[in-house]
Amino acid sequence: MAVYTDITEVELGAFLREYDLGELLSYKGIAEGTENSNFIVHTGSGSYILTLYEKRVEKADLPFFLGLMEHLAKRGVTCPLPVHRRDGAVMGELAGRPAAVITFLEGMWPRRPTAAHCREVGVALASMHIAGADFALSRPNALSIDGWKKLWSGCRERADEVEQGLEAEVAADFAALEAGWPSDLPAGVIHADLFPDNVFFLGDRLSGLIDFYFACNDAFAYDVATCLNAWCFERDHAFNLTKGTALLAGYQSVRPLSPAEVEALPLLCRGSALRFMLTRLYDWLHGPDGAMVKKRDPLEYVRKMRFHRQIGSAAEYGIQPQ
Ligand SMILES: Nc1ncnc2c1ncn2[C@@H]1O[C@H](COP(=O)(O)OP(=O)(O)O)[C@@H](O)[C@H]1O
Ligand SMILES: N[C@@H](CCOP(=O)(O)O)C(=O)O
């Protein structure tokens, strides 16, 4: 459960008086999530999500994240809407943290994603890429190669505590990724963390996307790579070609990948696996130790890095000729 910063009823009541949401009826910390502190809040006018932004979220980036949700929602991507305060602002401060209230989205994230879920995610990801095209703000990806290096310098010395030989393995990956990382692929606003727990379904239909707090401008195909990693591996760590095929077909039904994007996919998958391995490794070694937070396993992503190293071409992920 991710609640790093707790709040009192009195603090929350005072915070909500800046909004037109009716009286506070109840609130409770949410038993999911990793990065921020989230609460479900019931008021006289309905249910909302209150987020207190923690260490990885820069206050200066909040207008990008919250503005993006409003922009995407207007273009038909179902996602939460930031609630405006009486003074028009979409964020305030609570318990010393930047904080915002967003609308509650119905649905559940899939605990065991199927190929049908993967196809829907591919469609939604491509639709989001297109809908973000005219978003006025931009934000560089703070977790691309330079950001990975900063994380790595904070955990390199202790990497072998987690897995013998990991230090040398990751150093070799850095060298290969830096040498070949593409810089001229089609790019725009990407979600950058579209894992199953950030996609809601009602029955078999995708009902919305949440958690835009890593969103940034980067290569669209990098976002596809992140989804292949997050959605298409089984619990025994095997890549599921049926799911990969479904996700890529869903994506390409809305936005076909260019030959350069297809060619870059194995390296992008490898880079994205390294990125998530590094945030997990960093948190594994340094916290975050919230009262309620489940640490994620870096070794799951070490295995994915190893898988992608031996991939010859994107055909092995299930890409179909267009
Ligand atoms: N708009 C929303 N509607 C309904 N539930 C939400 C919404 N936003 C977040 N949640 C719930 O809170 C959990 C954590 O949210 P998330 O944004 O993923 O947190 P974090 O950024 O800390 O990882 C989600 O798994 C979901 O259960
Ligand atoms: N998806 C990341 C962790 C970020 O957590 P989220 O709850 O914001 O998706 C990972 O699995 O490492």
TrEMBL record:
Under Pfam families, the record lists:
APH (PF01636)
Q: What is its EC number?
A: 2.7.1.39
| Class of enzymatic activity (EC top level) | transferase
The Gene Ontology biological process annotation of the record reads: threonine biosynthetic process
Task: Indicate whether Magnesium appears among the record's keywords.
Answer: no
Question: InterPro entries, per this entry?
Answer: Aminoglycoside_PTrfase (IPR002575), Homoserine_kinase_II (IPR005280), Kinase-like_dom_sf (IPR011009), Pseudomonas-type_ThrB (IPR050249)
Which reaction does this chain catalyze? L-homoserine + ATP = O-phospho-L-homoserine + ADP + H(+)
> Pathway listed for it?
Amino-acid biosynthesis; L-threonine biosynthesis; L-threonine from L-aspartate: step 4/5
Where is the Aminoglycoside phosphotransferase domain positioned along the sequence? Answer: 27-257
User: Which key words are in the record?
Assistant: Amino-acid biosynthesis, ATP-binding, Kinase, Nucleotide-binding, Threonine biosynthesis, Transferase
GO molecular-function term, one example from the UniProt record: ATP binding
The family line of this record is: Belongs to the pseudomonas-type ThrB family.
Identify this protein by name: Homoserine kinase
| Natural source organism | Neoaquamicrobium microcysteis
- Gene that this sequence comes from: thrB
